[in-house]
Design goal:
This protein is mainly alpha-helical and 125 residues long. Helices cover 60% and strands 11% of the residues. It is built from five helices and three strands.
């Protein structure tokens, strides 16, 4: 017997695990960079401001586990590690690029809406 069709609205649907991963800002930013070129660990740290080494490492491990990126270690001293996107990861990165562009293009409107909301909340107190 096969599994029923995925339904992200159902509490037990495993697609929610995928949504948790792809809804993460670090995932969006990492896949955005890796979709352009393979990149070394430390270069990723430099390019994404505010991303700690620990969170970068954990996010990359999760993306590797999910089949979205590949980790390749080179026998140098110290060891050089490079990450690249998989074909599956590239399909996701393509969708995320639109989200990233939307966020950059609409951040002003969102911030203005937040300002208006906060002002209205303060006025009612």
């Amino acid at each position: 017997m096969s599994d029923p069709d995925p339904n992200a609205y159902a509490a037990a649907c495993p697609s929610r695990i995928v949504l948790d991963r792809v809804a993460d800002k670090w995932t969006v930013l990492l896949l955005g960079i890796l979709s352009k070129r393979p990149t070394r660990f430390n270069q990723l740290r430099r390019e994404i401001e505010g991303l700690s080494q620990k969170v970068l490492s954990q996010t990359l491990k999760n993306l590797e586990r999910d089949g979205l990126v590949i980790r390749e270690a080179f026998a140098t001293v110290p060891v050089t590690v490079e990450y690249s996107i998989t074909p599956l990861g590239a399909t996701l990165a393509e969708k995320m690029e639109a989200l990233l562009h939307w966020a950059e293009g609409n951040v002003g409107q969102v911030l203005e809406a937040q300002r208006r909301y906060d002002k209205a909340q303060t006025a009612t107190m």
